[in-house]
Amino acid sequence: MSRLSDLRYSDVTPQSIYVNRRRFLATAAAAAGAIAGPFSGQGRAAALTGAKSAFSTTEKPTPQQVITSYNNYYEFGTGKDEPVRNAPKWKVPAPWTVQIGGAVAKPKTLDLDAILKLAPLEERIYRHRCVEGWSIVVPWIGFSLSALLKQVEPTAKAKYVAFETYYDPKAMLSAREAGIPFPYKEGLRVDEAMHPLTLLSMGLYGETLPNQNGAPLRLVIPWKYGFKSIKSINKITFTEKQPDTAWATYAPNEYGFYSNVNPKRDHPRWSQASENRLGEGFLGKGTRRPTEMFNGYAAQVAGLYNGMDLMRNY
Ligand code: MTE
To answer: At 18, is the pLDDT very low, low, confident or very high (cuts 50, 70, 90)?
Structure first.
């Protein structure tokens, strides 16, 4: 994430760019004959609406065009403008299944249709703060992750939940090319995962998720830095021990397990005191504002961390 050596790598390594482009083109050709459905991917959006939620911010949503074209999705490129070019060529596998197991009484593999029936869809307008210092406001469509997690009946041993992104080496960058381990992994404590604000999202702006935003379903944890909001999930495991996560594995001194938005704790290489809200101001380049503790969600979530030193447990 904004690592100078990564930037240099992708900027000055024509061979890797060449290899990647060839790979993405091959994927597009393979996808061309695929059957289109509401969740078939290939950049085709279907309507997906949800009821208004009391959890929504009244802040103005960032333009859809910004949310869907300025992305972090390292599987499809490390530049902000690469996922929008490369991810739509990926054919989202159908049926999409999510395998849920580990420390649970009833392990299950559910497909998207079954998941969509678990709870009514809501529109949740959340602030999203990336650890890199930019922010957006997104009208997500989805429901609390707890509705899905309850299905498998976690046991007393379950203290954490580990999440994994679907990984297709033929359609996505290699870990070496991207600079972080794949499949992309994230994790939460069980109480964080069960918190009503933690959203399982299948859409934004009244449509199914574009591939670059994590189709067909992803997490959104609005009080944590954006990298916790893992995209395109196909595996969930309840664990006794704190699971490994992609960014903490890559640089443990820079990216912690908790990664709660905290304006007082600077990243070792930059300040976290303020953020650039994309899509506003001169030419939509963004306007600066102070970053809030827990990204403005302290009233709802601060209690999860009572007695913890948040400077050390970053
Ligand atoms: N999930 C996967 N699988 N791969 C990624 O590279 N990037 C993360 C997160 N989830 C990422 C991911 C980061 S750093 C951010 S800020 C958000 O996705 C960006 O979400 P957006 O592109 O929908 O704004």
So the answer is: very low
Strands of the sheet with 97-102, listed across from one edge: 108-111, 97-102, 233-239, 160-165, 185-189
Domain positions in the chain are 4-305
Instruction: Tell me the whole-structure pTM to 2 decimals.
Output: 0.89
pLDDT class of 28 with cuts at 50, 70, 90? very low
Encode pLDDT of 111-141 as tens digits: 999 999 999 999 999 999 999 999 999 999 9
Instruction: Please choose from 1, 221, 227 the residue to mutate so as to test ligand 1's pocket, defined by most ligand atoms within 8 A of CB.
Output: 227
Spatial distance between the Cα atoms of 302 and 299, rounded to a whole number of angstroms: 6
- The single residue listed with the structure tokens 């420390």 is 103
Report how far ligand 1's centroid is from the alpha carbon of 305 (Å): 24
Pocket test for ligand 1, best of 68, 73, 84, 172 (most atoms within 8 A of CB): 73
Is the sign of the CA dihedral 228, 229, 234, 238 positive or negative? Answer: positive
Question: Would you state the CATH architecture of domain 4-305?
Answer: Alpha-Beta Complex (3.90)
For ligand 1, the distance from its centroid to the CA atom of residue 196, given in whole angstroms, is 21
CA atoms of 299 and 281, how far apart (whole Å): 29
